[in-house]
Amino acid sequence: MNKRIVKINKAPVELYKILKFENIASSGGEAKFMIVDGFAEVNGSIETQKRKKIYPGDIIKINDLVLEIQLIDDLPCAQ
């Protein structure tokens, strides 16, 4: 299983955008289909919401890839 740290500069970020920007999906549309079809897990549960809000500390799993979400230091989270 591959593990990758994903640093975001603001939170929250929508799940499909992370899949797109991490090149797991070639487009936002493909990312949305992957999510709706049940290929994404967030914090151990299958997630089918394309626009699921992802926060620092969340763990995303797609196939054998695990993404750990971290906020870039010294940047505030949106409330």
Return the average pLDDT rounded to an integer.
Answer: 92
Order of helices and strands: EEHHEEEEE
What fold name stands as the CATH topology?
A: Structural Genomics Hypothetical 15.5 Kd Protein In mrcA-pckA Intergenic Region, Chain A
Tally of individual helices: 2
For the record, the count of structural domains works out to 1
Poorly predicted segments: none
CATH hierarchy, class: Alpha Beta
CATH architecture: Roll
Major beta-sheet overview: 5 strands, mixed
Q: Given the C-alpha coordinates, what overall shape results?
A: globular
**CA-to-CA gap between the ends?**
33 Å
What amount of the residues lies in strands?
Answer: 25-35%
Rg over alpha carbons: 12 Å
Enumerate the strands of the largest sheet in spatial order, edge to edge or round the barrel.
1-7-6-3-4
Structural class: alpha+beta
Total beta strand runs: 7
Give the helix proportion (percent range): 10-25%
